[in-house]
Amino acid sequence: MADFDLMRELAKNDGGKIVLLVMDGLGGLPTESGGDTELEAAAVPYLDQLAREGCCGLSMPIGPGITPGSGPAHLALFGYDPLRYVIGRGVLEAFGIGLSVGPRDVAARGNFCSLDADGLITDRRAGRIATERSAELCDRLSSIRLAGVQTEAKPVKDYRFALVLRGEGLDPHLADTDPQVVGQAPLPVRSLRPEAEHTALLFQSWVDQARPILADQHPANGVTLRGFSSDPNLPKFGDVYRLRAACVAVYPMYRGLAQLVGMDVLPTDPGDTPADEFDRVAAAWDRYDFFFVHVKYTDSHGEDGDFDGKVRVIEQVDQGLDRLLAVKPDVLIVTGDHSTPSSMRSHSWHPVPTLLWAPQTHRPDAARSFGESECMKGNLGIFRAADLMVLALAHANRLTKFGA
User: Fold this and answer.
1) CA–CA separation, 303 vs 299, rounded Å?
2) How far apart are CA 370 and CA 267, in angstroms?
3) What is the CA radius of gyration of the chain?
4) Does the domain spanning 92-229 belong to CATH 1.10.3470?
5) 19 - beta bridge partners?
6) Following CA atoms 316, 318, 323, 329 in sequence, which dihedral angle do they give, to the nearest 10 degrees?
7) Given its phi and psi angles, is residue 281 left (phi above 0), alpha (psi -120 to 50 degrees) or beta?
8) What gap in Å lies between CA 261 and CA 247, rounded to an integer?
9) pLDDT of residue 100
10) What is the pLDDT of residue 10?
11) Distance CA 357, CA 391 (A)
12) How many CB atoms lie within 10 A of CB 195?
């Protein structure tokens, strides 16, 4: 992973331009023995060509056997040690939609969910209700009052919302209330250390008041909360790497993460396709040295168990890739933050296919196409995702020599 003190010493203000293209949840599994993964099943002529010309490998977001959340997995791609810089989903969602979260505030990511007559979860995502419906429900929840604390709940996207509590003596060390399975009731808000007990009572009071407000709003008649967090005050990307960095992402959480590390967030529209996102990179090409481009729906289809849907998104990325290649990046990295096999319907620990294309500096390897099996043949090997930024800087000629 990047040693930030060393990067500040070695990084240069000039050099080539870097694009980090992240297809969320890219890695997958075959649905039958000897079959293809979603990436291997996709028709991706551009990516296959880049794999033949570049070098490939498999990246581990955290470590062998560890299934990552999206926040730590992306921090690793940015070179941050995800075990040192721990960040909760709540602050990411809040920043992504423009909610301020100070060091004494606590944010949580909320899910609207479906509950049966016994209060058991039947759908953790409330049928993926529309964002407009989520906004209506958040308006209803604005009537909740907590003594000595300000509350703010705002929609994020679809069934997700962000909840921020502002007041004195708040502590984010709280356990998630989402049991991560159906057939169980939402868990109570529980403190993970004594100093957080008061905060746990406040969040539980908010949940208790939300229940009657949502009782007749099926399928979104319940809530779960997770990722309790405050502003972690992360080292800034530009300070560490001497890069003018920009983010192009449709989904709010990833815009929030980019903001937390100090990237500029370029405007997008909710309906932007991968090709649209690549056009936004091209339009801002002269203003930045580094672009983080995020594609969400590979992960969404994986979580829904939709193998063909995930394949289609991968193919959409490839179909628009000529627009990104037209700006002639010096370094293009294509990877995922983690694997989300549609057969598992969840994030997994499997290493993620990764492609590094840098025409002036890379060494082509034995990979003939972009997929899990071919990436095993690549000269990058199996490596930590947190090492990727240093490789990108080196290939962009943005690091000076270490030592005499």
Assistant:
1) 6
2) 30
3) 21
4) no
5) 291, 332
6) 140
7) alpha
8) 11
9) 86
10) 97
11) 11
12) 12
Among candidates 255, 276, 237, which has minimal Cα distance to 70?
255
The enclosing H or E element of 249 equals: strand 245-249
Taking a C-beta distance cutoff of 8 angstroms, is the pair 356, 362 a contact? yes
* CB distance 385 to 76 below 8 Å: yes
Calculate ∠ Cα 302-304-309, nearest 5°.
60
Two tokens, residue 161: 């919302």
For the chain, give every domain's residue range. 4-85+234-395, 92-229
Residue stretches of the chain with pLDDT short of 50: none
Question: For 4-85+234-395, which CATH class?
Answer: alpha beta
Count of Cβ atoms closer than 10 Å to residue 154 Cβ: 21
> Which residues are CB-neighbours of 396 under 8 A, at least 6 positions away?
15, 16, 17, 18, 330, 331, 358
**DSSP calls for 133-162:** HHHHHHHHHTT--BTTBEEEEEEEETTEEE
Identify the residue whose tokens are 């909760």.
88
d(CA 245, CA 258): 9
Contact present, 22 and 59 (Cβ < 8 Å): no
How many Cα atoms within 13 Å fall on the side-chain side of residue 156? 28
Distances (CA, A) of 117 to 145, 214, 218, 221, 285: 26, 13, 11, 11, 54
Q: Among residues 189, 144, 147, 159, which one has the least CA distance to residue 171?
A: 189
Contact status, residue 51 vs residue 380, Cβ threshold 8 Å: no
Distance (Å, rounded) from C-alpha 300 to C-alpha 207?
Answer: 27
Q: What is the pLDDT of residues 323-360, one digit of tens each?
A: 999 999 999 999 999 999 999 999 999 999 999 999 99
Residues 327, 288 contacting (CB under 8 angstroms): no
For the stretch 106-162, pLDDT in tens is 999 999 999 999 999 999 999 999 999 999 999 999 999 999 999 999 999 899 999
Domains 4-85+234-395 and 92-229 share a fold: no
Cis? peptide before 219, omega within 30° of 0: yes
